[in-house]
From TrEMBL:
This is L,D-TPase catalytic domain-containing protein. It comes from the Bacteria. Keywords: Cell shape, Cell wall biogenesis/degradation, Peptidoglycan synthesis, Transferase. CDD domains: YkuD_like. It comes from Sulfurovum riftiae. GO terms for biological process: cell wall organization; peptidoglycan biosynthetic process; regulation of cell shape. One of its GO terms (molecular function) is transferase activity. Pfam families: YkuD. Pathway: Cell wall biogenesis; peptidoglycan biosynthesis.
Amino acid sequence: MIRNTILLAAGAAALFLSGCGEPRAYGKVDKTPYEIRECNKELYRGIDTDPEKHIDKIVVHKKKRELAMYKKGKLIYACKVSLGKNGDKGDKVQAGDYRTPEGSYRIVRKKCDPRLYKSLMISYPNAEDKARARANGVKPGGYITIHGQPKWNADGHADRFTLAHDWTEGCMAVSNKAIDALWIAVKNGVKIDIYP
């Protein structure tokens, strides 16, 4: 019992210390629980998607903490999502505010990450975001993604905890099972609408 409590506390600390900002240098990391080499091979070979499973739109409702995938208006898949630590405080205004953006974007890149299981980068900041930040004399930030879990939760044992809290730096975190479903169904250019 004490060991489980210690492990849960350590996991919680790691959860809140991890985020989704700019990737950090980790020296020579050639393999993690996420099989980075295998992930990169998928991207290089172009076998990261299945044309029969392609979707054309992702919708996120921040208040509901829900992400949904659509194809020709039909719901294909829905899942729970965690937001930035200040995800319930409104639209992203500037770098470092830990808010998740709201608006219309596109998926612009897939990324294999040694810290977080598979990431789909969105086109934040768009022209409107940049103009608003400029008017406020701040930087809009960037590198906002939909991503899987931190590597300490590679097997999903803490999904109930991680998906019940907002903990990212502004990204949208889903279970590894959900990011796998998105990964195979999404190609660059897919639209994503993020609502309050």
